Amino acid sequence: MADQRILFTKSGTAQYISHLDLMHTMERAFLRAGITIRHTAGFHPHPYVSIPLPLPLGFSSDCEIMEFGLVDGATMETLPQQMTDALPAGIKVLQCYEGGQAFKKLSYVRYDITLEFDAPMAPQAAEAFLALLKRESFVVRKRSKKAKSGFTEVDVIPLVEAVEEVRADGTFLYLTLLLKAQNPGLNPDVLLQGFKAEHPEFPVVYSHCHRREILDDRKKTYR
Amino acid sequence: MDHKLEKILARVQKPGRYVGGEYKAVQKDKAEVDCRFAFCFPDTYEIGMSNLGMRILYGVMNKMPGVWCERVFAPWGDMEDEMRKEGLPLYALESGDPIKDFDIIGFSLGYEMAYTNVLNMLDLADLPLRSADRPGITPLVVAGGTSTYNPEPLAPFVDVVCLGEGEDALPELTNLYRKAKRENWTKDQLLREASRLSGIYVPSLYEVTYGEDGIISAITPKDGAPEKVTKRLVTDMDRSYYPVETIVPSTEITHDRVMLELFRGCIRGCRFCQAGFVYRPVRNRSQELLVQQGIDACKASGYQEMTLLSLSSSDYPDLLPLCDGLLDYCRPNNVSISLPSLRADNFSMELMEKLQAGGRKSGLTFAPEAGSQRLRDAINKNVTEEDLLNTCRTAFAGGWSSVKLYFMLGLPTETDEDVLGIADLATKVYHVWRNNTPNRSRGVRITVSTSCFVPKSHTPFQWEAQNTMEEYMRKVTLLRDNMRNKSITYNWHDPDTSFLEACLSRGDRRLADVIETAWKNGAKFDSWSEYFNFQTWMDAFQTNGLDPAFYANRERGKEEILPWKVISDGVKDSYLWKERKAAYQGVITPDCWEKCSGCGANKLCEGGVCHG
Q1: pLDDT digit string (tens) for A160-170?
Q2: Radius of gyration of chain A (CA)
Q3: Min Cα–Cα distance to chain B from A44, Å
Q4: Domain range list for chain B
Q5: How many CB atoms sit inside 10 A of residue B557's CB?
Q6: Is the complex ipTM higher than 0.85?
């Protein structure tokens, strides 16, 4: 039997729980809920939980997925409520189901991005932003733990699958983008950094990214 | 969430510690709350959330209908800068509301080096620092915790001090405040009434005068305030509140595990140890209850680690059955148990082996405190060299290969011979390893650490002079030069923090000006090397015309009025003096079980009998 998965949301105060802390939180929540999960085999067995696409700190999401293995007793129908009750504020388990679709099929992420400027300049900023994405190539310097210099360069253009929605409202700019998820994927923050570096005349005072949906290679909802 | 806060959080490190929302954080309906209590811990979230006392009082206060107790921690520098820049006042984690508008602001003070953080937090909350500049009863600023046994350096800042254990005193004080609020009392009226409550000290009701020599000439109570304020304590640990269900932080904290409190107090009576006196008498929790609480706390939290807390766990009478009871649950459920504060004897060693069976061997840590038997007798630290070496023998034979030894330099009566005794002891430990290890090629790590002794109030050494920093460093050099073995690592703490601690722990209320000046010049988080600046403090002493050596390096006379004269932990002054004399004679005092030495703390218990 394949392992099980849950679909959960992460918002509000829970946005500030890092990926690593989230893994611990989940392990403890299973224990608090009295749900036994599969442990890894080997010399130091530990509970198996796996999150295919870690959510960056400060992002919110409607569509996080975590895989684990139910051992005995727990039923998938009652699990979402049991887990939600055992989790901190801002994490809600929506669904528990049998896994199966390979993680590598997770191909696209739909992000809702909010940018706030220090003056009502969102319409102009929107134009500038779109112009950037129309370029043949747009190379952004990003932090890297692997590179010796601490930075690498990435061309974001091939990683932006589609600009689905653009709405400018005074000081706020709202974007919905479909980005490549992995191998390689694009963290929308990198795109925002590129924009900020390219257009310092539009000072961003606040930005927020929200994962609305995850899609497979055929752009169908991934579960 | 407040949009200002959201903006800030994107720019600070570890934002998770500033948002609340953890599992079991208490939310209440404001419509049903008439008293908002801000429980302030003057250090980071990670340190504060590791404090069991805070978790107990958080639970106790939130059990009161109509009272909402929330948590507040000191923001780290980056967060503080952003808050000040954006004009975001200090807020409580549960509601996000500014604490300025709360009814009671309570500070938990565990150590002197947090004092500047108290001022900084009041300032960040947009409140006047001094009690005299806060005319109304709201908010009432309360302080409690171990370092309030000498509350004087903070006297002008706080309105009320809760002495001892707060489980009963804090609700009583809170109810008095609620009455005052309903009946529109003035602050004077509230403070006067508060001073009538048992265990409550109101600093503004005492006038302190000084002689020309700078020594206190009189402490005069006003408005009928009591001559002595005696600490409060829980008499029955089995009926006292223990937070089985408590907040589980979503981010990593310093002590991220179940904390099971075995007992309060300590039977040993080490003469340097403030905790050993101020928590008297010993009060045990029963073994059956502890097993139940430990298991329930694991289930309620999901923690897979548990630590048994007390001042000296080996002295818990049913330690073996307790560990067996816990292991019955913990082993099959993969919960590890750690047992700090063990004495260096073979019983402890066997226990360690049992608890860590199959697991990784952690290092061994012992605190002989002094290098020679003579000095250990003088400080009443009843550990013999034989005990220590025997324990090490068992440990090394069992495969352990790392030992840490903690000592203090500058203890009363110490000679250079005692200092060199440390090197001698460390070398003996090394030879024990050589003769007993199954595998010499793996090597051994013996770490010797020394710190500079800080005389504390309410101990037999409260009259003592601290070694000067120069004298301490001379002893460090002496020890270092005589302990050259590549298997022995020597670490010494810088004496400047200890020097300042000595000033603050036995200081009078004139030090309030020094603390305020230091804070104004940037002092905060003084227990963190990232922030501690010794010069800032020395300048602050100078600015206020006070000599730190007067507080740290001066021996007090028997008749001198000590700044904490009004504060009693139940132990008689005459007993402390007797213990001091015994120290100089090198006479040990038996532990509380062997023979009651009549310290006076038994009077705090019903029937005047210590139980343990």
Answers
A1: 999 999 999 99
A2: 19
A3: 10
A4: 3-230, 258-510+569-601
A5: 8
A6: yes
